[in-house]
Amino acid sequence: MSAQPGCEERLRQAEAAAADAGARLQAAVLIGVDARASPGLDFAFAALPSSSVAGDFLDIQSLREGSLDLLIGDVMGKGMEAATLGVVLKHAFLRAQARLALRHGAPPRLDELCAEAEASASSHFIARRSIATLAYLRICESEGIYEFVDCGHTGVVHYRAADRCCRLVKGVDMPFGFAESQAFRRYLAPYGPGDALLLFSDGLSECEGSGGEPFGEERIMRYLRARGGESARAIVDGLVRVGSDYACGAFQDDLTLACVRAGEAAAASPPERSGRLRLLLEPGSGRPGERLRAAVAAALAADGGVGEDTAAEIVLACHEALENIQRYALTGGGRCMASWRLRGRVFSLELDYRGPDYDWLSVPEADASDFSPRGYGRAIIDKAMDSAFLCAGFGDEKTLVMARRLA
Amino acid sequence: MSEPFELKEAGGALVFKPLVKTVDQTNADSFLAPMAARAAEGFKLALDLAELRFLNSAGLGAVVMLVRDLKQAGGELRICSPTPTVRALFKMVRLENIAAIDENVDAALAAFGAEASEGG
């Protein structure tokens, strides 16, 4: 006759059973892929659960041809509780997608989608005193842009093949579970052939080396800068290997990575109008804004399909963005590379420069009705553009990215 | 130093016409300076922007300040003949909430005149 296990042993068995159930739940539901790579979009992912299951989740799907949606998230805590809340969240997103797609007849905007999902999921998180960070990335192949919403997650690293530069795009929205609802900020940015976009969990960026120092975002960017030209699979596998080596062979937390790499633009892609301008922002160096305005106005006019008012708004916003950099970041002068593009129905402008950090969002937005003396630049940019954000690369590299989807 | 301009009196109002084509951060503070300096007189002012091809946010701020200062002194500012780009800017910030925008100087002067006769 075998002896009955003691309380401690039974507790250990129960915990092991819960961890096992959580792991099965994670494998079966929380990590999901329902998309195929295309010549224009190659993707790969890795999802490595740690010994005690945490709440990472990942979903990759194609809601229509030529677009790819990636949702990555991390529920606070570990075990069955975190896994269950992960399922709640994924379900909320699926339901929101279906509901909004029925309403609009097209894949929903990411900010709307996140708001709809939060409306049904936040009460569960608040009741369980938990939160979830997440990032939603959508690649729109025909327009050559990506859309992004970041709710307290780690951001997205964008490797630009044209100049082999990396930048980290981070949002400012709060994780799910902080409030019943919030207004989400949707970012739009252009990408080009050969570019790579990487989503990653803090299992990579925060894994600790032998000295206790976290792996960090800069190592991720450095890796991508060196190996960004490889396939999505090679990038993901390489990062897992490098991270594992750094963490002495054992990640302390779940590790989830997803990489999308853009191929050459599809032959059926709409024509593109683009240009670049090197601008010197020195006091007394002429009027760089004038050159930028002329170039952007010419590109918009050449398209023929952009209305006069819309073109005027975009030109104004481009000018204000440049002056904003000059006024707040490059006060002593500097150089700025302006790259604009009109592809499909999306206009985008990127302003690359080297300069100190400044809080783009702290610049107040003025209202003429209040007789504000200044602050109209930010208001103009916000009204003229669907998205405008500042992101950082290596050292003092910065990029101000703006985009507008034309009617 | 102020930028070039034309100034005349017509129908009990002043008509101020900046002659610069571009207002940006290099001249936003100066293009309305002659009128800003006299705003405390509280006159009626038709601001003729027919020559102006581009106005940036700082220049817009100068216009808003002139509207405010004239109003506080009992005067009024009407904007005339904005070019398409400048009109688009005004529309974006809803400038019409604080200052009337007229097609041309004659329309602004007529509106001033109508207001004067209504006021007795």
**Overall strand count of chain A:** 16
CATH topology of chain B: Transcription Regulator spoIIAA
- For the termini of chain A, the CA-CA separation is 79 Å
Q: Write out the CATH superfamily name of chain B.
A: STAS domain
The quaternary state of the protein chains shown equals heterodimer
- From the coordinates shown, what is the CATH architecture of chain B? 2-Layer Sandwich
Mean pLDDT reading of chain A: 89
Mean pLDDT of chain B: 92
Number of domains of chain A: 2
Greatest contact between two chains: A-B, 30 and 26 residues
Could you say which overall geometry of chain A the principal axes of the C-alpha atoms support?
A: globular
Structural class, judged by helices and strands of chain B?
alpha/beta
What's the CATH topology label of the largest domain in chain A? Phosphatase 2c, domain 1
The shape of chain B, in one word, is globular
Number of H/I helices of chain A: 9
Separate helix tally of chain B: 4
Structural account:
The complex is a heterodimer of chains A (407) and B (120). Chain A is of the alpha+beta class and 407 residues long. Helix content of chain A is 36%, strand content 29%. Chain A has helices at 7-30, 79-104, 110-127, 202-205, 216-227, 232-246, 288-303, 308-328, 376-384; strands at residues 31-34, 41-48, 54-61, 67-78, 132-140, 145-151, 156-160, 165-169, 187-190, 196-200, 255-262, 272-281, 334-343, 346-354, 387-392, 397-405. Chain A is globular and about 85 Å long. The model of chain B has no long low-confidence stretch (mean pLDDT 92). The longest helix of chain B is centred in the middle third of the chain and has 16 residues, at 57-72. Chain B has one domain: Transcription Regulator spoIIAA (2-Layer Sandwich), CATH 3.30.750. Chain B starts with a strand and ends with a helix. Chain A binds chain B through residues 287, 289-290, 293, 308-309, 312-313, 315-316, 319-320, 323, 326-327, 366-369, 371-377, 379-380, 383-384, and chain B through 22, 24-26, 54, 56-58, 60-61, 64-65, 67-68, 84-85, 87-89, 91-95, 97-98.
